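## retry 2 of 3
previous attempt timed out at serialization; input unchanged, resubmitting
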Amino acid sequence: MTNRLLSFRIPDWPALGAGLVIAGAMVAAPLAAQSYTYARSMPNDPGQCAAGKGPAVRVNVTGLKSSEGNLFVRAYPARSSDWLESKRYVMRVDARPQAGSVTVCVPLPATGDFAIAVHHDVNGNRKSDLSDGAGMSNNPGIRKILGLVPRPPSVEKVRFNAGQGVTRMTISVQYM
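## retry succeeded, writing output
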């Protein structure tokens, strides 16, 4: 009886390394293509941003010109296929606007890269109008086409990483 353990072959290390990289990419792919439950909403609950909670984003919304209407804060996965698309947010928090500023807590489904859009629906009709205000994470300038119609920034300009705890940010609302 021959000992099969003595007849092993030393692996080709570069080929083995490439195989491990490919296998690792296949394992990581489902994480990168994480699926979310979309169009979830809730009222503003500051307790969701208390110490020891998360993942969540505590957003200080500034520059609100009035207490009229509705304030919607939406968190989107930081993917161009989702950014500002109808019902593609992972959480919408409905809050009462206050002239000046208001703090809103946005719970997130997981850690990772997200983008936030704030909409001050001044007349309360739940539609975007020229009188409404808007702001986004990282406070990019909102360009206007022909000086009138706002053009949203790319998801790359508004992307941020949310960790395990509570991420804090300030978003300034701009009006037409």
